[in-house]
Amino acid sequence: MPITDPLEEEVAEETRPPHAGPVPQVVAALVALAVGVAGAIGSFGLGLGELTHPGPGLWPFAISIVIAVLSLTLVVTGRGLQDAERFSKATLLTAAGLVTLILLAALLPLIGFEIPSLLLVCVWLRWLGKESWRSSIVISIVTVAAFYLLFVLLLQVPLPRLI
Amino acid sequence: MDISPILDGFGIVLEPSNLIYCLIGVIVGMLIGVLPGLGPGATIAILLPITYGIGPVSAIIMLAGIFYGAQYGGTITSVLLRLPGEASSVVTVFDGFALARKGKAGTALGIAAIGSFIGGTVSILGLTLLAPIVAGFALDFGPPEYAALGVLGVLLISSIGNGNKLKAIIAAAVGLLIATVGRDTFTGAERFTFGSLNLAEGIDFIPIAMGLFGLSEILYNLEERHNQVHAPAKVGNVWPSRKDLGQAKGAIGRGSLIGFLLGVLPGGGATLSSLAAYAFEKRRAKQPERFGKGAVEGVAAPETANNAAATSSFIPLLTLGIPANATMALIFGALLIQGIQPGPQLVTEHPDVFWGVINSMYIGNILLLIMSIPMVGVFVKILRVRPAILAPITVLITLLGAYTVRNQVYDIFLVIGFGLLGYLMKKLGFEPGPLVLAFVLGPMIENSSRQSLLIFGGDPTGFFTRPISGTVLALVLVVALWPLISKAVRRKPAPVPAGPPADPPVEPPVEEKTP
Amino acid sequence: MTILVGYLPTPEGDAAVEAGLREGALRSERVVIVNSPRRGAPVDEHKIDDDASAALLARARAAGVDAEVRQPLHDDDLAETFESLVEETGGTLIVIGLRHRSLVGKFILGSEAQRILMEASVPVLTVKADR
């Protein structure tokens, strides 16, 4: 299917970050291999049964073997693949975002959803989105107020809350 | 054919509440199609908890609206900014942006909207006629057929999608494995629960979908900041001239057909069909060099095809219970949540769902045509919104939404966990789509293959001797071995050292963001 | 030595270019027209397209001034963007347009002009739009 156009390359260029090299590829494949092996051991322990009376472990065992074999192939053949993206400084943003999510989940049952949500939105706007202080604060207050209105007052969802 | 259930379906759609859900769905779809970042898959995943609150028909009408609405919206960014909002609009970029540069952006958008409308409508007509027939044929299917079909579906989606096939199949197998967590329905044994009560119930579909599709995409987008800002484009007249319409007519017709056919195939879907339709038009054109320089057909064909495909991909879901792509897997999950098993019985057991959803698409396409021609200016303005402002709001919707399903913080942690997994998968070149799809189909494949083994008295060759399951399994083998076969075939003719291979594989230039 | 002119496609922006070019002709200095869009959104209505920037350059040529258009992206730091351009191009003067804004508008959006005035290391010339 010949789609040769300079634009195509430009489009591809704009969206593809630099690739990550062989180490993450091999690590990813090894993790998958470990999942396969662990799955196989675990399901063997459950009992495979026989084909006339399949045990609870037969099906997961079969899948785990497939995972293990394919991952092993990937370990061997996948070193040169270029479809993994490099973890860069920007990855720290994602890590920071993830921490705020975990904090929200941990604080939710303790102090209700309002304050954790407010903090989450504010942090995401100010540091991850590089908005100004002023708009970060205004938008986060408006957002939480809207959520309160929607979830608590209109839909009457039993969210843990402060007020 | 008895048409009274079809007419009843229209009655259901025309209920004011369903009309509103259809409208909300297509507007949301259009919006997220325009905005870079969240794709329709992510949006549907994030909104899954809503399906608990509203009835099954309304829920599916809305989610379907998001799906095909996004196909319309994706066109706008392709044409105006050379930025395909969705993978299925990638090829539209070539001629759409060239037209925009000539000051004919409006023409491109108008032609695309008309093509999308025609493609969508033709496809719904096909769906209306074909779906009951397929469903009737599939009624005799037994467990072996379903096991074989499920395996074929998983395999096709893994191997037709973008990216590395091996990785996709590994992801799918991990999805099958995750689906086994919990109590075994046959023996009652607890599998991979590690003594946890939460895990004993199995892992719910909603947190998996919300995490792998929704949250992972938000996390992934945090890193990717668009460093290009465009000046506002002049859209101009959206109504295409008679000459442009005449030029696009053939492309729209062929695009509808290609889209409908490829959309039905599992794994085919909108992206592949838009590529195929574009290539087909270019190949049969008298002056192929016009393509890429502002040929109206180059916009009409892929946009028509991706809409037709989006619609026809409902056929395997509604008739066989096999989702044709990852987004259909989400709708499959949404139906299961409502206690409705998609499959051949759907049309007889739940005609309201079946015809309600299909007929809502006629209405939805009309709404979309209105939104994308007279109201296109409104949606163009949305491009000025900074995604960074929307990201925390979507995150909050995701996390709190996940909580509301069962009022458990455990579910929020599951979403975060799967969000992280999905993010890492994306970074490392694994598509989360096959995993979610395999997770959805996993229990069906396992249960029906175990039932089949019982039927066959433990003889696995039984799968191959039944005509339908045998044929399907033969197809499975062909798909599984296809890379080897095509390699062998390609190696035979004398290799040409210089110059590109005669038929390079279809690879869309942009990675698909959660189809 | 250059003169930096903040430009947005508004009457205030045109007035700033007008004043900047006049100063450029007087002092025989180069003029750098800064049209800086906000990073993040795919489209910023303040960004000008190639035709508009060609028109600006034509205006400069008609005034007998050597000029260029720069379009650096900024986050929440337009003043710093200007500051780094001053350093890079050896700026001696910044010219910006001012518009009247209500008290509420100022509170919500802040005033970029005020921050440039406060933080710039070179003199700032502010102009109002022609009536």
UniProtKB/TrEMBL annotation, chain A:
It comes from the Bacteria. Residues 1-20 are annotated as: Disordered. Residues 27-160 form the DUF1468 domain. Residues 1-12 have a biased composition (Acidic residues). The chain crosses the membrane at residues 26-46, 58-78, 90-113, 133-155. The keyword rRNA-binding does not apply. Keywords: Membrane, Transmembrane, Transmembrane helix. This is Tripartite tricarboxylate transporter TctB family protein.
TrEMBL record, chain B:
Keywords: Membrane, Transmembrane, Transmembrane helix. It comes from the Bacteria. InterPro entries: DUF112_TM. Residues 19-437 form the DUF112 domain. The keyword Transmembrane applies. The keyword Magnesium does not apply. The chain crosses the membrane at residues 18-38, 45-68, 112-139, 145-161, 168-186, 257-280, 317-340, 360-380, 387-403, 468-485. This is Tripartite tricarboxylate transporter permease.
From TrEMBL, chain C:
Residues 2-128 form the UspA domain. This is Universal stress protein. It comes from Nonomuraea phyllanthi. Belongs to the universal stress protein A family. InterPro entries: Rossmann-like_a/b/a_fold, Universal_stress_UspA, UspA.
